[in-house]
Amino acid sequence: MSMLSEGRPTRQEDNLQMTDTGSITTHTGNRALMVDEPLIFEIGSPDRSGVDLPEAPPVESRLGGLEREAPMAIPGLSEGETIRHYTRLSRQNYAIDVGLFPLGSCTMKHNPRLNEKMARLKGFADIHPLQPVDSVQGALGVINELAVWLIKLTGMYGVAMTPKAGAHGELCGILCIRAGLEARGDAREVILVPESAHGTNPATAAFAGYKVEDIPANAAGRVDLEALKARLGPDVAGVMITNPNTCGLFEPDMKAISDAVHEAGGYVYCDGANFNAIVGKVRPGDLGIDAMHINLHKTFSTPHGGGGPGSGPVVLSEALAPYGPLPFTERHADGHITLVEEETVEDRHPHTFGRMSAFHGQMGMFTRALAYILSHGADGLKQVAEDAVLNANYILRSLEDVLEAPFAHSGPCMHEALFSDKGFTNELTTLDLAKGMIDEGYHPMTMYFPLVVHGAMLVEPTETESKAAIDQFIGAFRSVAERAKAGDERLKSAPHFAPRRRLDETQAARKPILVWTEDEDFAQAAE
Amino acid sequence: MSRYFTDEHEWVDVEGDTATVGITDYAQEQLGDIVFVEVPEVGSELAQGDDAAVVESVKAASDVYAAVSGEVVEVNEALEDEPGLVNSSAEEDGWFFRLTLSDKDELSDLMDEKAYKAFVDNL
User: Fold this and answer.
1) How many domains does chain B have?
2) How far apart are CA A171 and CA A177, in angstroms?
3) Which of these, A95, A164, A347, A505, has the minimum number of CB atoms within 10 Å of its CB?
4) What is the DSSP letter of A493?
5) Exposed, middle or buried, A521 (CB in 10 Å: 0-12/13-18/19+)?
6) To probe the interface with A, which of B7, B34, B56, B59 has the most A CB atoms within 10 Å?
7) Nearest residue of B to residue A429 by CA position?
8) In this complex, which of B35, B59, B60 lies closest to A510 when CB atoms are compared?
9) What is the pLDDT along chain B (123 residues), one digit of tens a residue?
10) A391 with A335, same domain?
11) How high is the ipTM of this complex?
12) Is position A49 within any domain?
């Protein structure tokens, strides 16, 4: 037994030999670093404050007796208490800085700290969108240079930088399509969306006022080209295709699809959420795509999922670029950059469909994305796609003997591996496996999506994980999958080791309590 | 009264000119716990195959299609407060809406109970 010169054994197995930790309780209910943190309202008190404000002078009320008399329900905490509260909560959280985050289609890659350093430079961080353009030439230069990179990487004609996230970008693209059709006096009603598309695609089309029709997937998990061709006609405004799609597969018929849609007078929208898998390898412009959003927070490593805002620039074909939104940057021959806005639009960009964002876009994300692009270079970005695809295929081939991979027989996957729940016994489900992964110390994979696969599990490791990290993940995934197939009853009550046990998702969706209140009767009435 | 089924897992009870539509027990089983149901507005005209209602479970949101064409005359308002009725009684108390049939011939496109059972067994 290894011992310190004084004190207790240091190796874990020695500790386990000495005590059965399951039977130990603590006075506080805490378990070492894992603190059972109350709600902020339960620890706050009105007589405490993080700031020292002067006594308010008497004010003659002009509210006609409607002024508040009761104290405001704001928790009072000192600065130290506030920091401890949120730091303790954050330790119960899972984040990309804690471990591999295998959420399929979300591209949870490492957020390089170089990006953060660049975004915090005063010239980028401490400026205002209404400053005179002469005083922010550097920041406008970042937007412009990123725009040029995005156009080059996609082989497209123009780019709208202002959309704030993927779905916002989809809306921007569909509004461009609508503007393009209306400009030629050809209002159409229908947008076709394949089953393998992202869930936001039909929502976007419906929000923009289109009727949405599904196009089935074929047995290989791709768009059924013949079914698509058969549906095309003078009422079809366009198609929305996710490529690579949500089965983690490349759509090899993309050019044929684009040609057929164009021939029928429609436009092609591509959901570029999975651009990570093809950046530097395939240029969407060469595939006949008219509009595609790029998630800077996926492909170009800017933080997301609670870690920061998204950003969804939309690249546009020559046919749709004239309709793109305001404002955008314009670099003049002398290097000076100006903004094309409503005041200057008449002679610069008269066909724009308008504005969908108050200002230039997500500046902080532009800086981070450009830092990522410049630190990788064109060759490095190509390797990003190669490594992302290699990592996903390593997972696919390492697990296909234990989990059914419905489309694996049709060849390699792209950036994400898709498994089904086939072979699970004892009524165990994908949800149970996901909860088991929490006990193993992982955020679960995307589950029950795409809908075309029963009990789908979609795993995306991204290029930023090492082989050692992926091997460890595979080991955990294999172990839990084997338990699901063997019908391990204990999986039904997982997670066992998380700060909270299994949550009642049904009750949370049906009767959520969204407002804290001291009054228990009220809380019960809300139920 | 006769009961018909669609390959989108809806059932249709026909009594005279009135059809009652819901989702099948197989469908609720596949969806899992249902947390939200959106029914069509009374008075809306539906064509066969139109999106008629939305059902949302802890797993996914799905459209419920109009199995037959007609005007919606009544909706199951109990589902708003108690979407779980679809889980506990999919083919009775968990019905979605009633419509007045505009084209009885459309019923010939649908399956009877035996054909639907065979269809489900093959899935």
Assistant:
1) 1
2) 10
3) A347
4) G
5) exposed
6) B59
7) B32
8) B35
9) 789 999 999 999 999 999 999 999 999 998 888 999 999 999 999 999 888 999 998 888 888 999 999 999 999 999 988 999 999 999 999 999 999 999 999 999 899 999 999 999 988
10) no
11) 0.72
12) no
